[in-house]
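Quick one: co-fold with magnesium ion.
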Amino acid sequence: MKLGILGGGQLGMMMCQEAKDLEISTFIFTDAEDSPATKFSDEHIIAQYDDFEKLERFIRACNVVTYEFENIPYKTLNHILKKKPVYPDPQINNIIQDRLTEKKFINDLNIPTVPYLPIEESNQLQFVEENFFPAILKTRRLGYDGKGQTVIDSKSEKFQIEKNDYILEKRIELKTEISVITVRYQDNSLFSYKPIENIHKDQILYTSTSPASISLELQTKAIRWSQDIIEALNYVGVICIEFFIDRFDNLYVNEIAPRVHNSGHLTIESYNVSQFQSHLRAVCDLNPIAPELKTKAQMLNLLGDDIFKYRDQSNIEKDAFFHDYYKKEAKKGRKMGHITKIIS
Ligand code: ADP
Ligand code: MG
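Sure, here it is.
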């Protein structure tokens, strides 16, 4: 079995690490030179995602193809799909790559999101009611780790926006944020990991704790909505749904990540089967395994310079597991590695 993975980041890296135990060989196709995944894959190509000549060799070599980030051009995924199975179905990215169609899709399933308005030009903001503010203006496409977001506290505020497609989202007072990872297999069986509690710093994930300390009612609802979403998409593989919980315990879906997710890294140490293994098993059509929590755990992201404190291993506590993504340049806010600590 040879699995092709588009994207060469740390998510792809951890898939490749897990694939070794399952005796699946991996082939990474990435557009970046400094790619963590290529250090653990059996084979790789570095080329642009629309380089169809280079893609041809990749397609020929692989039995099945998946991707580790959702912004792979749709045209590329669709081209591959004509020749080899691609999981999850590229069609899903059409919905999820655009925050507006994503939210409409969620609301059509009778699942709430925070209130939002589509915005195409800055002068439209004048017609938004004052009580909609504070709000966050988000680019509809290509945002991640808070990129492409501007907080607007009041309508009278002066700001400039470039011509782009945006949504304006009401900013809510968050009590907490959670995520739910769900896997769905080709035989339609599906399993959810317990909700994970997430703390963001400057809109970038900082810590994740499993299980989340939320009511049973909220846990059940978040899992039910996640499963409604994955079934509506007829999805194969791992998906992650991010949720907001406000101070009145209202639950909203924030966004859908059609892939393994940063908040799920702690499943490597705290579950019988990690999110990476679940994803590989589903896309490669191996026997389903139900995830079971072995121990509580907390993950800490190492951003930018944080990594240097741990690279010599001397600062790692007992019961803590250090993961280095081996990226050369420690830019500010860049995800460089993580530590998962077992909580007894
Ligand atoms: P990204 O695609 O960059 O992850 P998100 O929409 O998930 O974008 O926003 C990143 C973080 O910013 C969220 O996890 C949350 O902490 C904060 N945030 C985003 N939207 C809102 C909102 N409407 N109200 C309050 N906080 C928000
Ligand atoms: Mg997010």
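If it helps, The chain has a mean pLDDT of 94.
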